[in-house]
Amino acid sequence: MTETNAANPGLPTQPYRSALVSGRKPLRFTFAPDLAARRQIADALDLIDLPEFTFKGELSPSGRADVMLRADLAALVVQPCSITLAPVRSKLADTTERRYAYDYAQPDADELEIPEDDIEPLPETIDIAAVAIEALALALPLYPRARGAEFSEAAFAAPGVAPLQSADLKPFAGLAALADKLKKPEEPET
């Protein structure tokens, strides 16, 4: 049974104390939530279902006091199609790397740049479940589409009125043709 996340009630948690990662020996972990926990995660991420989800990796020492997290995500998700709302199954595989710095200093707003890697301050405990759920959320397809689902043009109008088409909404589309009609034919020079 997975514990409940205090920061996000209803979501599972799997905390590890940062102090356990010391010396040269990595701390291996596997986050494989049970059916009830996967249901909670699916509800939080607006998924129809989350039949499979594992996040497996290790926390290893980096430098004198920093900690490196490396993990592989594997999941099978069912999302609603962005067009038809029909269920769309997607198999996901992704790798996550994060570095937790012991002496992390937040840069000033004027000096803020996009860092090369994900660097965060080293917390007292690292919640593997929270990292896994965030990695899953980032790996989800943004606009899942069911096979054969396509956008089509819908035209609505009151009875007796011609519906407005998308071509009617492009006021400059016909200007080139109009400009050609208005041009006078050039007269040959003599």
Q: How would you describe this structure to a colleague?
A:
The N and C termini lie far apart (96 Å). Strands 4-5-6-7-8 form a five-stranded mixed sheet, with helices on one face. It has a two-stranded antiparallel ribbon with strand order 1-2. A two-stranded antiparallel sheet has the order 3-9. A hairpin with a 7-residue loop joins β1 (3-4) and β2 (12-13). 16% of the residues lie in helices and 33% in strands. It has three helices and nine strands. It has one domain. With 190 residues, the protein is α+β, with helices and mostly antiparallel strands.
Layout of helices and strands:
Layout: E1 3-4, E2 12-13, E3 15-17, E4 27-31, H1 35-44, E5 49-62, E6 66-80, E7 87-101, E8 119-121, E9 125-127, H2 128-139, H3 175-182
Parallel strand pairs: 7-8
Antiparallel strand pairs: 1-2, 3-9, 4-5, 5-6, 6-7
Which class do the helix and strand fractions yield? alpha+beta
Cα Rg:
27 Å
Name the strands of the widest sheet in spatial order: 4-5-6-7-8
* Terminal Cα span: 96 Å
Number of helices: 3
Determine the oligomeric state from the structure. Answer: single chain
Q: Summarize the main sheet.
A: 5 strands, mixed
Mean pLDDT: 83
Number of strands: 9
Q: Which spans have pLDDT < 50 for at least 5 consecutive residues?
A: none
Proportion in helices: 10-25%
Shape: elongated
Percentage of residues in DSSP E strands: 25-35%
* Integer tally of domains: 1
**Element order, helices and strands?**
EEEEHEEEEEHH
